């Protein structure tokens, strides 16, 4: 279990692309969509273009979900710093619902449960964070 009750802020283990990279990649998807739509509207064969847009967007869905998980995690950190522990718990759980391998979110959930006096849950989530490689 965590030795102290400090919320972890930095998550060096949680790999994701930078938001600027995501923006560039979504721009490519929009451009592909526009090409496909123009071909479709002209009555031209557009199956290959639609297949490309589906492939590109499916690849980006996971990256977008990771940013949503990070946003929930960071809101949990802010709520915990304000001592809004139930709201922090909800945000960390929302992050983990999206990304069940988000180690620091498990650690921070352990800290919140420790502060709430739920040592059984704190130990459970600390062990999950540790199993995923997070050490404070």
Our Rg estimate from Cα atoms comes to 20 Å
The structure class reads mainly alpha
For the report, how would you describe the main beta sheet? none
Provide the number of structural domains.
1
Fraction of residues in H or I helices: over 70%
Cα distance spanning the termini: 11 Å
CATH architecture: Alpha Horseshoe
CATH superfamily: Tetratricopeptide repeat domain
- What is the percentage of strand-forming residues? under 5%
* CATH class assignment: Mainly Alpha
Annotation field: number of helices: 5
From the spread of the alpha carbons, the general shape counts as elongated
Describe the structure using short key phrases.
136 residues; mainly alpha; Serine Threonine Protein Phosphatase 5, Tetratricopeptide repeat; 5 helices; 72% helix; elongated
Provide a short characterization of the protein structure:
The protein has helices spanning 19-41, 47-81, 85-98, 103-115, 119-131.
Structural commentary:
With 136 residues, the chain is mainly alpha-helical. The protein has a single domain (19-131), classed as Serine Threonine Protein Phosphatase 5, Tetratricopeptide repeat, CATH 1.25.40.10. Helices cover 72% and strands 0% of the residues. It has five helices and no strands. The chain has helices at residues 19-41, 47-81, 85-98, 103-115, 119-131. α2 (47-81) packs antiparallel against α3 (85-98).
